[in-house]
Fold Helicase SKI2W.
Amino acid sequence: MTDEASIAITMPNVEYDDEVSKAAECLFRSECVSTLLAPTINLKASSETCNLGIDTIISRGESLEPTTSLVPIINDDGNIVEFVEQSRASEEFGSSSVSMSLNRAPYKDSIMRTSVAHKVRGSSSNVPFSPGFGKGIDDILSGAEVPIDDENASKYNEKELEFLDFSTTLLNQAPGLKPVNLSENASGNQKAPEKEEIPSKPPPVIDLDSTNIFDLLDFVSSGAPNLPASKKSTDEQNKDENATKIEEIPIDSAEEKELEECITESLPHVKEDTRNYDLEASTSTNSTKKFAYANEINTLESYPEYEKLLPRMARKYPFTLDPFQQASVLCMERGESLFVAAHTSAGKTVVAEYAVAMCKVHKTRAIYTSPIKALSNQNFTPKLFCLIMTTEILRSMLYNGSEVIRDLEWVVFDEVHYINNEERGHVWEEVLIMLPSHVKIVMLSATVPNCVEFADWVGRIKNRRINVISTYRRPVPLEHFLYTGQDGKTKKDLFRIIDSTGTWLTKGYNEAVEAKEKLHAKQVHAHQNDRNRGGGGGQGRGGAHPPTRGGANGQFRGGANTGGGKNYPGKNDRNIYSNLINHMRECDQLPMVAFVFSRKRCDDNAQILQTMDLTTQVEKSHVRKFFQQCVEQLKGSDKMLPQVLQMRELCLRGFAVHHSGILPILKEVVELLFQKGYVKILFATETFAMGVNMPARCVVFDSIVKHDGTQKRILNAGEYIQMAGRAGRRGLDPTGTVIVLCKDPAVPQAADLQVLMNGAALRLESKFRVTYSMLLNLLRVEQLRIEDMLQRSYAESGSLREAREKRKNLEKLEQELRSMPPIDCATCEPTLAKTSFSTFGLRVYHDALCSFIYRVSDMWPKVSSEQSVSKLLNVGRFLIVSSAQNCFQNDVVLLLKELSSGSSRSLLIMASCDSLSSSDEALKQADAFSRLNATEKSWNEETCHLEGLAKFGINGARVPSSGRKLFRVCELSYSSLVAIVKKSLKSVQAVEVIAESDRRKLPRFRNEPVSDGVVKLINQLDGVAESLSKGEVEVYSMNELASMCSRVELDTPLVEIASLESTLSDPAVYPARHCTRFDQHMMLQREKVRYERRIETLKYELSSDALLLSDEYQNRLKVLEALGYVENEKMVSLRGRIACEIHHQELLITELILNNRFVTRSSAEVAAMLSALTCQYNSGKEIRFPPETIFAELQDNVTEIMMRLDQTASRFSARAAEVGCELRFDLMEVVYQWANGMPFAEIMQLTDAQEGLIVKCIQRLDEVCKDVRNAARIVGDPALLEKMEEVSASIRRDIVFAASLYTSV
């Protein structure tokens, strides 16, 4: 710009047109800012030959950004009044290896270029992006954060807020990069209008129109990253900070206003909804307060606001969305996270699709996660704006700081109820915890009873409100039947037991029982006739079972009375299925999915029906053509594999099989044919029900019993509902049909069926556990603590909910303790200790009494079990007892009987009492005592004992009032014992005393006089108490009891108790006992101690020491330290860095790498060795190879290291391998031959394993090879890297890595 122009701006006396002058000045100021903030480019350096020497790299490194910035403060008039120097957090301008900020520099690898693989997966040299913790565990537990509400929903993690609001710069400017002008808006054909950005917390912005030019230059040269805004009042700032952020679509002002009204007024919170729905999921006032971070939304009607949004939706649908889908769309348009718990086939996929569509509009990214690959294949195809992966991959991306996370707007978690999975459920929790604050969450799940509680947990760890949207009924209701048919005559024996309204039909069940009994009687009779004719144990017509098989009376054995049947198909199964299929075909109830809980039985069931043909010639032609097109992708002999030919023959007849043993490409063929209606009967395992949207008209359960890997059990309601939910095609079927086959002699029990079909689904429960991978990935990041992760696990959700209230209680208790008056007494509170004993104050005396009470209470059960002491505790022995529960305080009682129940022992005693009213009062107090919590019970008992010892002495007894004529009998624990009196009565009729006590409990005998014998005992009790007070009768001291014990381990504690007893009995040691106001001061001291203990308890509960998984964490950390993966001060060593690159069996593979077990082996040998870690096939027998073979050597190499790891882990009560990661050598030879080039058809001759299991083993092996290859870079071993590339190349071929049909057909 010329000097004249600048003079024109600064000299007001030059006459220029006002508008031109104003525009020129604004242009100058804008250009000034852009020019001064632009990076300096050294053209000379860029033209030189590239030299990557270390000195050159250092000398050419980017200049360090300033660690402080000058921020101008601008008044209401727009003038700069002062500059304030502010420190910049290092996270704002650090590299990806040290900074967790979204504003950090992008990752670049060692050769100064960004790797595409590292962009997506990240690198172990990166630290994660800030996971939205915002605060440390102590702050969270302290309750310092403010609960989410409409006014402060955006105050969390303010440093990152500028990256969290997608309505501002993040939608058109990646962090750290220059803004990009997008020519298209939400509708794709209009230019987005310029609008003023309103950040969540307004950073100061300089006024370009009124600011002094020199101030502007100074401001720009200071390197301040943000342009400050004008100074506002505190109330205005708070209002801006607490403003709710809304996703804004670029439209004209009129449309924008209408859309804003539509979105902001769309979904009322539950607390504002006064309608009363009689639904289990409805939120009550108490639950709303308890689960404050979950906003449950009623979805029983459509939303008018949705109609306003309809023209501008990110994705258009050719059908009207259901209310729950409308509510979900409105929530997502508002930028709010949500948990959708809907019935199977209700349409949850629409919600996921809309989240992806919003990312397409916003030019951001979405990640869709699923537990199984089939979900990903079906629901979406890979797009630039949507990545599809398992949760394990997303977890790795989060730990490794993937660059994709910067652009991530939505993460969709499908099948969230999979969090209950024992092996993989913990991954869901890790991912939810590690997600950065700017990422919004969509969780999709089947109906679960505690979805609000789970959403509240997610809301608390992410510090945002989670909307909970549920469906209350299926779109297609289900009808449940029992099928008892066996042959042509009984093929129509189908009995409805639950109708479409969910009502249990007793009549239908009784008819099924009657039909089954008749059929079974007929079978037994036929079987008996066969035996009489010499038929032996053959089955009669229809495959009758022997009468003892499973039990005719319906007792459980091998599936009897549960619809289980035999574990193998035969003539009976063929008859049942053929007749059922014919009947369902006649009723137009096909297609049908039959769930069978065994891969082998799925195959066998399909084969025994080979005479049935359900397809027309036209359908056969289509199937044949499609199958041929799919198989053409295979090479050579793979096209003629037995499983391929068998599946082709089955599909041509309308049958198919779907389970993990089927080749992946064949499973996809089956899924596509089933969707098109060419497969009429599908035999599948329960994995087919996991989220794959392939509904049928009818679902059949071959059995309601499954083996879960540990035992045989009946299905739970959640499993049954998940599979049964496949019945009923929306828009085609009015109802879905669910059939349970009754193949046993008796039908399942009615109670079991009702729980199964109408019971509540399983609750979402935490399966979180501490893994070595998690420990290493967190320990390598200085800014993160493992306690942060543990505290935010779902297992600790209860503690998170209570933390704020506990912190309030803690502060209140501390304040009340400080306000308590001191004990102003020279005797009880001596200020100067002249000797070590004589000046012990009241607090020391109190603590000594408490110590004595707890030691004695703990010792009595042990001492009483000694033979010599046990002889003292006979019937008629006088005892001194104290019990707050039974209103005793150093009272003398008479022992009637010793009671024992298992390992617990107690005393039945008799005590005197003044009147019936006092006896009744004691009973009332005992009842009230039983309702107290454990803490209150312990405190009351301690107080009772302490007051008794202080008042009557260590072994003293209270003297009762004279003239007592009544008694009571009660049970006391051994901890109630104070002392054993050296006196007992002989020939006490304990049975008569107990009987009289029981009789007097009856109202009509209540006022009867006490028998003479019992009156005599009462007088003797009172006499012994008086004698004890006068010293005429003594008790056994602890020294005397110690001399009677034979166990050596009791000597030391008894001697210590005896010493403490002697000290407490000495009146000179504790002068506070002689205070004239002792009772008053002791009461005040007890109150202070109570406050202190409650404060101590709350502090512990609010600390990381109270974590449920604290012990497991410490144990596993010790294992890592012992193995050298973690060094001093919890620093991750080189071994640990290598293990961070491994995502499966990290300890074992790391040890194999560092023990040089790979480089000296051939590619096939390495593949065979690693197959032991990825094999999931179990042949059911121990695999032992001949000693001289290479396989025996490889097996020894792996087991030797694994045994060493197990030995180290066992020292710390831990395991070296995770759950489900056992070593299996069943496919070692198969993988070896495959890596050597043997065709798939030939390797199938080496094993009984099914094709699909072999393919899965080899595919997982390839993932392990990638991990080891990355680890080789960490080690700096090019030979190992080259070796693993060779291994990958040797196994990545042919049918094992055939392309998916979803992306190629």
The chain is about 45% helix and 10% strand.
